[in-house]
Amino acid sequence: MQSDSTDRDAAARGRSRRRFLALTAAGVAGLAGCSTQTATQTDGGGPTDGSGGDGTDGDGSGGSDGDADGGSTGDTTTPESVVGTPLESWSGYDPGWEPPTSSPLDATLGAEVLVENLEVPWDIAFAPDGDMFVTERVGRVLRFDGENVSTVAEPTEAIDAGSTEPGSDERPWWVKGGEGGTLGVAVHPTFPEPAHIFAYYTYTTTENGERTKYNKVAAFDVESETPGEPVSTVVDGIPANSYHNGGRITFGPRNYLWVTCGDGGQPDDAQDPSSLAGKILRVTPSGEPAPDNPDLGGDADPRVFTYGHRNPQGVVWLPDGTPVNSEHGPTGRDEINRLVPGDNYSWNEVYEPDDYPGSGFHPPLFNTGAQSFAPTGSLFYTGDAVPALRNRMVTGGLVSQQLIVTTLTPEGGTLPPAEDAYTQVTDDWSDQAYTATVHTTMKNELGRIRHVEQSPDGDIYVITSNRDGRANEGFPREQDDVLVRLTQE
């Protein structure tokens, strides 16, 4: 007999599924029925030592968040009592959490396609009521609310970004806009009061008579009649290029906004704390530095939480509040890092595993060596819908076209088996706070996986990036790009 909690979880997943089924009746162009093989279809058209919470030591005395170049404008009307709250008030806080000791490959995972023909989706964020926000790199933020699909933000100043057609054999590698465009999305901590979301996007401006690219984070009102215009700029002046734009934004346990900034083609600037290139920022919803961000001295930007990054793509938190990121390396050398406020993560000085000892740089938990995973958006899964992944870090893989499942075992803990793992990192060069056991799964089942996200009711959602011109043979399919929900058989 099922427990009451199991019944409730099953009912919640049923309601979640009906939310997408309801889209069929909403009259959105091209909608199809939702099933494992058929799904909601969009129109596909173009747009006109961090052991404490939030990277602190748990009492609010660790690092803090900061602002971006040019400061912030406007006010996101966030109650002061909400921002910088104690770690212990975080709903996900569990200082006694335990990592699994089994293999995630003991179970078989499946994927239920819910939405088809998205156009290079990049990020997912959920509102507390379960509404889902999805960015498309071509210039839109979509809202799925169970009754309809709507475009709630369409940044007017964002660069034009392109995509290949569904089912196309073209693999140009570079599409219009390169790796830039409309990237990350985050939902205001007190949504819907205010009804603000945040978007990270690339834009072009003129400086000294020349066109220059930057990335920025701006807040948008989802109820506005002018979805192209932000209500405020939160972070501006992030270096941009056709590649290495970073772009993930997410709110951490203490309601600070974390922003991942790539080096923007300026690798030397990753070592300069006064530049936003190659940094992870931590700011308030209005863009001010978090009060307890690290003091890096000199003219360092106070919004910088960590530096020396190449192209950070994801940030997650362990249940005790420890922040961890996933990051693209050069020709492989992809990393998973434990984030400690003020630490230097070595780009572009050191990136070979054996060069970390004695270097003074913070070593990674995992480095792929010459093998390229191209790790993207991540989650630390705490739900029950996919038990095999509970209390593990789950990361998308672009060029590797797979899910990367990392079990992080604290020093002295019982490790999961290594026999079926890609690797179990016990080398002296690695960060000794945790042992990373890395498994891979769902190879070539979905193609290029851009992001994975957990919904409020504990499901795992995945978006693909098969129409970005870089997919391997067999992709993009006619239904790409897709939003899927993971299942466990």
UniProtKB/TrEMBL annotation:
What species is this protein from?
Answer: Halosimplex carlsbadense 2-9-1
Alphabetical list of InterPro entries matching this protein: 6-blade_b-propeller_TolB-like, Glc/Sorbosone_DH, Quinoprot_gluc/sorb_DH_b-prop, TAT_signal
Where does this protein have compositionally biased stretches of type Gly residues? 43-73
Q: What is this protein called?
A: Glucose/Sorbosone dehydrogenase domain-containing protein
Please list the residue ranges that the record marks as compositionally biased, kind Low complexity: 31-42
Show the segment(s) annotated as Disordered. Answer: 31-103
Q: Which domain of life is it from?
A: Archaea
The Glucose/Sorbosone dehydrogenase domain is annotated at 118-470
Q: Which Pfam families match?
A: GSDH
